[in-house]
Amino acid sequence: MATTKSSKAKAAPAGAFFDIPLALITVEGQIRSRIDQEGEEFLAHVESIREKGVLEPVIVTPRAGKYLLISGERRLLACRKLGLPTIPARVIDAVTAKDEILALQLTENLQRADLDPIDTAQAVVGYVQARHAEEGFDTDGIINTMMNLEREPDRVNIFFRL
Fold it and tell me: Each residue of 28-82: pLDDT tens digit?
């Protein structure tokens, strides 16, 4: 992996992997509403990174001379807790649309068993609203459909795609 030595970020080729200084990564609008940085699970994650390093790079996109974190907030926080200078990152083309960012975050986070159901619901509703803003979806209807999908997946007609 190439190492960024300068404090000035330069846009990297799409899909490229780099070690990016933690100071150049900004976090905003993540799906998880809360990360317990003192809990046993998070501290075990920190210890794993201390022993083995970061096994899965975070995903970032260039934004205003820095990088916006798309996914991997717990990895980023663990590296900051350890005082590491850089983190392995996959740099993807500039992603600016809210629905694109949410789709990427949902794709990664829904594969993890520990995502809070409320965070999942809020992320899906946010995605549908961003993707179909002009259609004015009824938020209560979306939430009701999600609850029905959980209870009876065969009976629900899905009206959106990730």
Answer: 877 666 778 888 888 999 999 999 999 989 999 898 899 999 888 889 999 999 9
Which stretch of 15-19, 82-86, 127-131 has the lowest confidence by average pLDDT? Answer: 127-131
80 with 111, same domain: the answer is no
The catalytic residue among 47, 73, 108, 150 is: 73
Q: What is the DSSP letter of 113?
A: T
Query: Which pTM does this prediction carry?
Result: 0.60
Place of tokens 């899909």: 15
Same domain, 84 and 105: no
| Domain span holding position 123 | 97-162
Residue 73 is a catalytic residue: yes
Q: Which two tokens stand for residue 38?
A: 């003192």
Tell me: do 23 and 6 sit in the same domain.
yes
